[in-house]
Amino acid sequence: MICRILLLIKLSSCVCGTFVVNVTQTSYQAEENHNITLEWTFTTKTDSSLNSLQILCEIINPLKCLYHLHEGVEVSESQDEQFAGRVQCDKDVLREGRLRLHMSRLRTEDSGLYVCGVKTNYGANSGRCHLNVTAAADESKPQRPTVSPQPESQGRISLYAGLGLTAAAALLALCAGLFSLCLTKSAEKKGNVSAVI
Ligand SMILES: *[C@@H]1O[C@H](CO)[C@@H](O)[C@H](O)[C@H]1NC(C)=O
Ligand SMILES: *[C@@H]1O[C@H](CO)[C@@H](O)[C@H](O)[C@H]1NC(C)=O
Ligand SMILES: *[C@@H]1O[C@H](CO)[C@@H](O)[C@H](O)[C@H]1NC(C)=O
To answer: Residue 11: which pLDDT band, with cuts at 50, 70 and 90?
Structure first.
């Protein structure tokens, strides 16, 4: 059942017609422990209601759910624990076709490619942006120990490697089940697929 539903979502997501999801910024830069607001805009119709709105935002590589809205209701069960209590959506502007996600207390591991899929009863699409969270300068230790840069530079390298795959990864994630993670996770937790779909 999940597969059939995913296929439907997948197909509608990949038919990129007049329904668009834009990013207001393709790349964000922030420092650890700071806050940031990621913003997407999507096509609205005057007669549309929030009840028909489904939104899934995920970080790719590894795929983790950041935000899930189902028929206008937030599904917190879907959210990965990495983002628990740190992501807030501005529900007031959703009606205007603006998806604003406030992320607080940023961590370096929040860095990556973010994809938000928006599905309405008049279309579906997705938009992506990068977030780069740099480590906060540690004032108590102005000089880094000589051994410590190693893991950090490895992290950077894998981040670059990940970014190199950006287009492919994003397309893959979208077309091979952008919605799968959130749906699967909440289905597992709720033990009831129909509650999620
Ligand atoms: C970040 O957001 C939290 C609430 O989400 C707030 O308490 C805090 O003051 C903000 N920090 C900065 C640096 O804006
Ligand atoms: C998306 O971006 C295109 C090109 O900049 C613009 O024409 C369109 O109005 C935007 N749509 C939304 C919903 O933001
Ligand atoms: C992230 O930000 C740091 C500091 O500005 C910069 O040196 C690095 O190149 C950025 N990484 C990416 C992948 O943009």
So the answer is: very low
pLDDT (tens digit, 9 = 90+) per residue, 117-154?
999 999 999 999 999 999 987 755 444 444 444 444 44
Q: Which ligand is in closest contact with the Cα of 97?
A: 2
Q: How far apart are CA 187 and CA 192, in angstroms?
A: 5
Ligand 3 pocket test: pick from 29, 131, 159 the residue with the most ligand atoms within 8 Å of its Cβ. 29
Give the ligand 2 atom nearest the CA of 44: 13
Task: Ligand 1, residue 35: give the atom nearest the CA.
Answer: 1
